[in-house]
């Protein structure tokens, strides 16, 4: 296992993530540190990074270096983006960092930056066709892809920091500044010819700190129960009231908004004005938040170099496998329980009548059903429930995560706390409770059929005869323990499927 540090030096903030690289191309973030350095502030006048901003950045990078050393980091991959890319004093700035911090920073070209943002998104989102809007401090990236191939990109040299600076004068009211930014940014979009050719049904995705802050505000406003920004879907009709509320406030009032970082309060209206201009110009009615971007693109480059040529083929499976390895689950047992669960789902389809996409929920639950044992064996299904709800899961919706967590919580017994279920009523429906209970019974039987972790039951064939389900097993060796344990679920099976269960 290797620990690496990744530093992203942007126009607004500097961020360090420390990453464990482990088996077979998988990785996990284990620490992070973020500071608002505003490196690109006041550059518009003469193109030079200002001494105060440079000093603050060097102070921050020294802290990053200390944290890397404390964590035993063996390599630091440091990159800089728009502000440093445009700076006339770029060379002296980089040399000063090298000599004072011992960190060599590579300045990304606009194309390299766009590609890394794309890789961060495409390897963590199961969206075959999308347009990515990444709002930085000094620039805004737009990336268009289809069939998981990057088709076009543009980097506009205006971000949340620079737009705030450009339109903060002239005694304009906050809402007038926002309107000016909307108008200005729309004009920039009109000059990007390929945007006019983008498919109208494309999915918009938002990347960057401003989107993360927007999610936190929405979480507070709507009392959203999950802390996961990645794959959060927002309707434009829900975005507009938030934007209208924020754009009219002065700075002191903005700082008091719950969920809004005080360090970002002054520049968030400009970022939201960019979002408003973009959704109007593109005619989208919703957008998805991506918690992954440039830094994740770098992580995939380091952990799984093949993604430089082509993206991960199965985003969800890669993510689940990462968690199985990270939580040190028994991989052979996990694989066997997943296979048996899938067989049960298919064999019992005439009874449950669930569409194929529900198989994804069952797979997530089956792969992570035992992860709670990393906390404690007793009642580990409850720990698995919590861990699934709070794990880094890619390629799956928030609704599917919630349903998978509750399904995993049923793999030992029907163990759904209705107060817990009620917390997620804005994500799941009353009908979903029946889904969870039926999937939970299937998972419970599948796990029982590998009770000794021996893989002795190879396959299942179910005959539905009258009021009974005859489950015939193909066995290698003695499977008495497995069959007896699986039969303990017969009462719940009859309760939810209205059939008697026999296992042969």
Could you write a compact summary of the structure shown?
The protein is an alpha/beta fold. The protein has 21 helices and 14 strands.
How would you describe the overall organization of this protein?
The chain has 504 residues and is an alpha/beta fold. It is built from 21 helices and 14 strands. It has a six-stranded mixed β-sheet with strand order 8-7-6-9-11-10, with helices on both faces. A five-stranded mixed β-sheet has the order 3-2-1-4-5, sandwiched between helices. A hairpin with a 3-residue loop joins strand 1 and strand 2 (13-22). Helix 13 (331-347) runs antiparallel to helix 15 (358-368), helix 15 (358-368) packs across helix 17 and helix 17 (398-409) packs across helix 19. The longest helix has 20 residues, at 51-70. The model has no long low-confidence stretch (mean pLDDT 94).
